[in-house]
Amino acid sequence: MKRLLAIFLTILAGYATAQPVKDRIKFNDPAKYRELSSVHAGAGKMGFTQLIGHNDLSTNFLYLHAGIIQAKSGIGHHFHHHIEEMYVLLSGEAELTINGRTSKIKAPAVVPCKMGDSHAIHNPSKDPVRWLNFAVSLHKGKRDAFDLGDNRVGAPLDPIPGFVSSRLEKDKLKPNDPAYSGSGVLYRRVIGPEIFQTDWDHVDHVIIPAGSSTAPHLLEGIEKVFYVIKGTGAVTINDEKASIKADDAFFGALGEKISLVNNGEGDLELLVIGIAASKQKSLSIAKPGSEPKAMVLQMDFVVEKENGEAFEKMYYSIYVPAMTVQQGYLSSKLLRLFPENIAKQIEAEPTTYNYQIQISFATEEARRKWVASAQHQIAWPAATALAKEFKWRGYDVMGDDDQK
Question: Is residue 173 part of a domain?
Answer without folding.
Answer: no
